[in-house]
Amino acid sequence: MKSVQLFEMTYPEVEDALAQGFDTAVATFGATEQHGYHLPLGTDFLWGEALGYRVTKALGNAVQVPGLRIGCSDHHMAFKGSLSLSLETFTAVVSDTCKSLATHGFKKIVLIPTHGGNFRPIAKAAESIRPHIPEVNLIACSDLVSFMQMLWQVAADYGFSPAHTGAHAGENETSLILALRPDLVHMERAKAGFVGDHLAIADKIMANGFKGVTENGVLGDPAGARADIGEAYLEAMTRYFVNQVKIYS
Ligand SMILES: [Zn+2]
Questions:
Q1: Average pLDDT over all residues of the chain
Q2: Is 141 contained in some domain?
Q3: 31 CA to centre of ligand 1 in angstroms
Q4: Does residue 103 lie in a domain region?
Q5: What is the pLDDT of residues 173-209, one digit of tens each?
């Protein structure tokens, strides 16, 4: 098949793909939100859609759905340019996308959040959609803790602590964008933000926003970020999500 990205395919190609057993759809859910002084607002969908493509190819019988580029980012609204969907709108978009895919005969739909604030909403949305599309195996990869632990494992291989690699615009995401879009990374402006236990302050962030814990919008420290480490993260994340699909298939 020439392409496995829905936006590049014609409808007869989608028909052929389904007939050939390409009946899994992979959708990523990113964000447009601040990522410190040095990373673009599109960070989460840039690495998210690159990851989604790799997962799609690795699954082998899948097509990639255009990723959602705006997510649940209320906690970033104190920073200019951030966009946010309400939980209601987000759920409706996820739901209508899944119902469309089910209508066309996709048998498995894989939902991958690539922004921290989308993990819980994805889990909730999937719960509400499942009864409406019982013929579909709807897999919501919404376990934020195991996802972070997998990233920390890679970070440790390169000598970075969880606090340094970070949960937002730290070494992890800076390495990812250095690997994918180095032209959009401003290392000369990069500064550390909150460097502590990110999981411990997660509820506080969701309740009061990022500004309350990090003045520049960063959780972690971008120092030491490198493109080859970003590539290692992409490989590890691809393995992780392919494995999640296997577990729930
Ligand atoms: Zn991010």
A1: 96
A2: yes
A3: 8
A4: yes
A5: 999 999 999 999 999 999 999 998 887 888 888 888 9
State in Å: Cα 166 to ligand 1 middle: 10
Kindly state the greatest CA–CA separation across the chain: 52
pTM, entire model: 0.96
Domain encompassing residue 34: 6-247
pLDDT digits (tens, 9 = 90+) for 11-70: 999 999 999 999 999 999 999 999 999 999 999 999 999 999 999 999 999 999 999 999
What CATH number does the domain containing 238 carry?
3.40.50.10310
In the chain, the number of structural domains is: 1
User: What would the DSSP string read from start to end of 94-106?
Assistant: HHHHHHHHHHTT-
200 falls within a domain: yes
Backbone angles phi, psi at 155, to 5 degrees: -55, -45
Q: Which residue has the tokens 């996802």?
A: 147
pLDDT of residue 130: 97
Within a domain: residue 1? Answer: no
User: Whole-angstrom Cα distance, residue 190 to residue 71?
Assistant: 24
Instruction: Compute the distance from residue 41 Cα to the ligand 1 centre, in Å.
Output: 8
User: Residue 169 C-alpha to ligand 1 middle, in angstroms?
Assistant: 6
